[in-house]
Amino acid sequence: MNDTVLTGFVPQSETRLRDRLTTWLPQGYARMVQPVATSTITTDTQGLIAGEVKIDTRDGPVPAYRALPSKDGKHPIVLVVQEIFGVHEHIKDVCRRLAKLGYFAVAPELYFRQGDVSKITDNQEIFAKVVNHVPDSQVLSDLDAAVVWAQATGKADASRLGITGFCWGGRLTWTYCVHNPKVRAGVAWYGKLVAPSKAALQPAYPVELAPYLKVPVRGLYGAEDASIPIADVEKMREALKAAGNTASEIIVYPGAPHAFFADYRPNYRKEAAEDGWKQMQAWFRKYGVV
Question: What pTM was computed for the model?
Answer without folding.
Answer: 0.91
